[in-house]
Amino acid sequence: MPRLGILALQGDVREHQATVQSLGIEPTLVRTPQQLEEVDALILPGGESTAIAHLLVTSGLREPLANRLNEGMAAFGTCAGLIALSAEVLDGRSDQWSFAMLDVAVRRNGYGRQVASFETPIEVESLGLVPGVFIRAPRIERWDPQVEVLASHDHGDGEHPVLVKQGAVWGCSFHPELTSNAEIHGLFLQHVGF
């Protein structure tokens, strides 16, 4: 049986843990390179993208995680996790870096600051409507044709992807872990062989 990990440095760790437990999976909370070696797929949670990037460096996880991703490890990033997996971060800090596993450009806080947070139903391919919770969410502004768009949202300025995948790497602008609906997690896990 494959092992699922959740990057447990900062952010919505408990929420992702509860969601995958509701699907019958007991995840490994990944805080060290040794724990990373034990998992076959990894969830990168929402949180604060620059804090997560800093903690990936100080924990010694940045290089081992980059290696695992480049070797084809499955990953699912929500909000800040999407930023970490993106090829380009618009409006990021000058020292901001990412793993560049999804050929997309994301704008941090692309749907507005904290006070502009909102919830809306999102139509997901093969699932139907799921709740979308957007909190300081990144907006995907450019995407390569090899990136598969599973869901989009029009926030008054045209359609933008909000759930994408490229191979075994998935990214989500919103927070599926902040609802009681586990369908997106289930779809990802089914896709990567759980």
From TrEMBL:
A GO MF label: glutaminase activity
Pfam families, A to Z: SNO
Group of enzyme by EC: hydrolase
Keywords for the protein's UniProt record, in alphabetical order: Glutamine amidotransferase, Hydrolase, Lyase, Pyridoxal phosphate
Keyword Repeat: no
Gene Ontology BP terms: pyridoxal phosphate biosynthetic process; pyridoxine metabolic process
EC number: 3.5.1.2
UniProt-listed CDD domains: GATase1_PB
Name of the protein described by the UniProt record: glutaminase
Source organism (scientific name): freshwater metagenome
